[in-house]
Design a protein that fits this description.
The protein is an alpha/beta fold. The chain has a single domain, classed as Class I glutamine amidotransferase (GATase) domain (Rossmann fold), CATH 3.40.50.880. Strands 1, 2, 3, 4, 6, 7, 9, 10, 11 and 12 form a 10-stranded mixed β-sheet that branches. Helix 3 packs across helix 5. The longest helix has 13 residues. It is globular and about 55 Å long.
Length: 274
């Protein structure tokens, strides 16, 4: 195969943001972007290992039965690839160990934490230590939020980011760690990448609606210790152009939306390592 940047966007079983996520990858420079269902992975017709970036997009996997993304997590953990007889989850582990990038957005973030891929303390990528659960408001939240990026984070996707404005749309986005020790390790390791922020003072906040779900430490996104695995509840793929902004007809906005940075950083990283 010639060396070009390739991205895979996983779809099926209730995802609904695969087209926007694939488009964001293409706009940012990826030369091959394939939307692939989990059943193609199970059949062995496709493999994650042929790609440099894997995106787990937003949606409602299996109708959020058993809790958001839990049914899909069990499927990844317990299905085997028909052509090889190998556990499907081995692809995730090999993908990570090969130094590739993994991005989980909203439902994809929920999937990553329930697989144990995040926060992956001690580089353990198969042990769940945190979750994303029902919003404190008790309802689905569909709004735009202000975010602050942690400049000390190793996250590849947010290099150069500072203050961001992105949409959220979820019913189970409240980040909760198993215990205080886990939460402290995530904090001290600079694995908190994005925090919900009060636009009036620029500080992280637990105040509704700026923090739309009640997440501990106002956490909107985390990464693993390498910065190559990143999950977030806001939707960067939904703000790639100024016309995606809710006030684009009333404000003088840059042509490029704030979500572009995430995907361009991913492309630059991949391209520099081809």
């Amino acid at each position: 195969m010639s060396k070009i940047a390739r991205a895979i966007v996983l779809a099926g079983n209730g995802t609904n943001c695969e087209m926007e996520t694939a488009s964001a990858c293409r706009v940012s420079g990826f030369k091959q972007v394939d939307i692939v269902t989990i059943w193609e992975l199970v059949a062995g017709d496709k493999t994650m290992l042929d790609y440099d970036l894997a995106c787990l997009p937003g949606g409602f996997l299996d109708g959020d039965d058993l809790g958001s993304a839990k049914a899909q997590a069990n499927r990844f953990l317990h299905c085997t690839v028909k052509k090889t007889g190998r556990p499907l989850f081995d692809q995730f582990i090999s993908f990570v160990n090969n130094g590739k990038l993994l991005l989980g957005i909203c439902n994809g973030f929920q999937l990553m934490v329930k697989l144990g891929l995040l926060p992956a303390l001690d580089n353990n990528y198969s042990h769940q230590t945190v979750t994303l659960t029902s919003n404190d408001s008790g309802r689905f939240e569909d709004r735009w939020v202000w975010l602050k990026a942690n400049k000390n984070s190793p996250c590849i996707f947010t290099k150069g980011a500072d203050t961001l404005y992105l949409p959220v749309r979820h019913g189970e986005g409240k980040f909760v760690a198993r215990d205080n020790e886990i939460l402290e390790r995530i904090k001290t390791g600079n694995q908190i990448v994005l925090s919900y922020t009060d636009p009036d003072n620029g500080q992280e906040t637990n105040r509704y609606p700026h923090n739309p779900n009640g997440s501990q430490c106002a956490i909107a996104g985390i990464c693993d210790s390498t910065g190559r695995l990143f999950g977030l509840m806001p939707h960067p793929e939904a703000y790639m152009h100024r016309t995606n902004h809710p006030r684009w007809t009333r404000e003088n906005l840059p042509e490029e939306g704030m979500g572009c940075l995430f995907f361009r950083n991913a492309y630059d990283y991949v391209n520099s390592n081809l």
